Amino acid sequence: MFIVLGKSKTFISTFYKCLCIDFDRYMENWILASFGIKSAHSFPSVVSVAGLFGDEGLVPVHLQVAGVQRPLLEQLQASPSLLWLGPTLGLGPQQALEIICLLGVLLSLGAVLLGALRDSLVYLCLWALYLSLYTVGGDFLHAEWDNLLLEAGLLAALVAPCALLRRISASSHHDPVTFWLTRWLFFRLVLCTGVSKLASGDPSWWDLTALSRHFETQASPTPLAWYAHQLPDWLSKLGAVYILSAEITVPLLMFFAPVRGLRIGAFYIQLCFILLGGFSLLHLLTITLSFSLLDNDHFSSQKKKTKTKTWSQFLLSCLSFLVKLAVYLLVLFSAIKLFKLEINWEKKVVTSKTTFTRKSFEEFVKQIQDPTIWVGVLSLTWEVVAALLKCVCARGVLNKLSSLIQWAIFTAAAAAVFALSLVPYTAMAGMSGGKILPEVRKAYGAVEKYQLVSAYGIQHRMVPPAGRPEIVLEGSADKKTWTELNLMYKPDSLSECPPVVGPHQPRLDWLLWEAAVGEHDQNHWFTGLMQRLLEGKPDVVSLLQVDEAQYPFSQTPPAFVRAKVYHYHFTRTTEDGTHPQAWWKRQYVREFFPTVHLGDPALNVLLSDAGLKEKYPVQSSPDTPVSQALGLLRGHVRGLSGPLVLLTLFATVASILLLKALFSRPRHPKGPKPKSTSEHRNKKPREAHEGSEKSRAPPNRGGKKDNSEERKQDSDRSPPRKRK
After folding, report:
1. For residue 512, which phi and psi values (nearest 5 degrees)?
2. Most buried residue, 11, 127, 216, 502, by most Cβ within 10 Å?
């Protein structure tokens, strides 16, 4: 659910809007690129919402709605979701979810294509729609990128222009203050992710072998990952050093540096690192947030005229160059010193080894927390004071007053978001964050359910040393002959090429990847999956295979099902360098789920423990035009895969934007270029000045000759008259 069209739209909107020079339009670009992700990928959720949360899905959402007796306002306060409005509007739970998804995609597509909809109220509605799904989504919508989408959605509502305020005053002096929050979010995301790799004690990151295992153990490996897996070990270790330096050293030294060139350099360092990670929702949203390191001049296509620098400007540029050189050398020196980088000229390799201990790293994390918070405070204060000076210098009493009011409102909002973000930030690497004011911690606890700010890096997954654990589903009609139930996006088949899934994010496949390292009783939704496979529910089967020909039990559901865990490994190239016939090799590890059948007492007990037993009679949804339209739409998209729907929407949006850019290009007439008003105004005093000089000049003796020559020139310039 909520597959990632917005990621694709990230690039479309970023590339298209970054051509703009105006700072406000650049901020709109970021808004579309960050929060458009969330809303636009809502449409493919209609493809999978029935299988995940429908009445016949894995975790039916009506189980949460049934038996709720509290008043509507109390229920919304306890669990913020628009789903609770469904019964009031005469909608069933599944229909309410599908309408929420469709509203999200319609608003997001409108915001991409229509400038009038790029308003803070629109993005606030999109944030509320996603929060409604997040609240009832359970394990399927509680990933780290979901938290990031919600926080980015809140910032989008703050950064976007508000039509109500624009009618009162066109002032936008407060924009840098709210836009600064995106850089702070990007800083927390990158630094906490890097710290968690080492703070978790993952041995693969401490011995720098994580990349050699990551390519085959990531959530959605691609064919390119197979070739990257063939790289020599020393190069994979060097890549791990680059990642740790880009996520820890670079943010600390360059993200809030007063030198512009350092922030631009940090952007390209992060961009190279993120592109190596893949095209999942988290990576593409991170790319969008990285644009907060840039400024408007970086995207300007107009070259500034070179002027002769004064001595002070020359000395300032030299000082800036020396600071940039010192920081880059410090980053390089720290990588060499901390990871003992040495060149072995005989073997022509670069060796690396971690030289610090886990205890020293934990002390380092404790020491950097307070300085980084104060750097954030000073940086935000700088933006606030600069915006205040612009408001004070505004022309007109009313304009100045409205600018100051907007500045005060948005400054207070930015300060509140910054203060709340310190609570999860100080929990980095397991720190208690005891220096945070109790009032701030209490306020964070009151709004935590709204996901205004989140902690990142806490869901770090250990890289399995024994290989990629995969759950393989099997079905049988007689309990003797078993057939594997292969999923579209999982590496179940050894000979098939890994599929290219990104930027689509299949939720069921991702949860199966997470569950493979644990037990089935830790993942209650898995029991619902086995039950629906035994019942042969088409909405759930479409999550495995949209093509019925690829599903072995498309005609008759299996009578028995079970699940096993295998360890998968990428194959290696042969000695002569040729590609082997199989992409994967695997080894059986253990049983994950016992053999069950419909009516099995063991299955009923597991369903009761998972809370998937019907406690109340299921009320059928009323047959209304809305339900009929949703059923028709559901039937049309059931046979479509998520990537196909995603690419179709991406191509449609790209085509519309391209046509819009072509037809909106101004057409210059073939005649002479009309003079601008400024040139016309400048010309009048010049002519008057010239006329006064001529009047003061001495009379010309050959005036008759000059007058005749002027008349001749005028007659040559004037068009010939038609003879009657």
Report:
1. -65, -40
2. 127
- Which among 72, 47, 62 has a CA at the least distance from the CA of 620? 62
714 backbone dihedrals φ, ψ, rounded to 5°: -65, -40
pTM of the model: 0.84
Amino acid, single-letter form, for residue 383? E
**Is-contact 104 37, C-beta < 8 A?**
no
3-class secondary structure, 593: strand
Q: In whole angstroms, what is the distance from residue 345 CA to residue 330 CA?
A: 24
- DSSP string across 159-203: HS--HHHHHH----TTHHHHHHHHHHHHHHHHHHHHHHHHHTT-H
Dihedral sign computed on CA atoms, order 368, 413, 131, 630: negative
CA dist 10 and 29 (Å) reads 9
DSSP symbol at 719? P
- Helical pair 281-290 and 144-159, crossing angle rounded to 10 deg: 30
Side-chain-side CA neighbours of 346 within 13 Å: the count stands at: 0
User: What sign for the dihedral angle of Cα 546, 548, 554, 555?
Assistant: positive
Q: Tens digit of pLDDT for each residue in 571-621?
A: 988 777 787 889 999 999 999 999 999 999 999 999 998 888 876 555 666
DSSP codes, 355-377: -S-HHHHHHHHHHHHHHHHHHHH
Looking at per-residue confidence, does 700 or 373 come out higher?
Answer: 373
Q: How far is CA 323 from the centre of its chain?
A: 32
DSSP string, 54-74: STTSSS-THHHHTT--S-HHH
More confident position, 677 or 371: 371
Please give the C-alpha separations between residue 175 and each of 148, 213, 286, in angstroms, as whole numbers.
Answer: 21, 44, 21
pLDDT tens by residue, 150-197: 999 899 899 888 877 666 656 678 889 999 999 999 999 999 999 999
